[in-house]
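4.2 Preliminary Data

To establish feasibility before requesting continued support, the project team ran the inverse folding procedure on a target of 70 residues. The structure was first converted into the token representation described in Section 3, and no sequence information of any kind was made available to the design step. The complete token record follows.
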């Protein structure tokens, strides 16, 4: 039977290997999804184009900054 110290080391190495494997799998699946979406043609007829951006907070900040001018 392995000594307790070696058992702890072996368990730690297997855990690290499993975590690395899960991380690599997660990366590979995300890469595949992005690649597949990027290579597919998703053009459709539309009536409008909607642009969503995080500019609202910047506009509010700019308005508050220039409030003293008004």
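Position-by-position output of the design step:
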């Amino acid at each position: 039977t392995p000594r307790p110290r070696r058992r702890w080391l072996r368990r730690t190495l297997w855990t690290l290997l499993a975590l690395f494997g899960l991380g690599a799998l997660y990366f590979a699946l995300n890469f595949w999804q992005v690649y597949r979406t990027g290579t597919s043609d998703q053009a459709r007829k539309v009536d409008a184009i909607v642009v969503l951006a995080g500019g609202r907070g910047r506009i509010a900040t700019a308005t508050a900054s220039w409030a003293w001018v008004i």
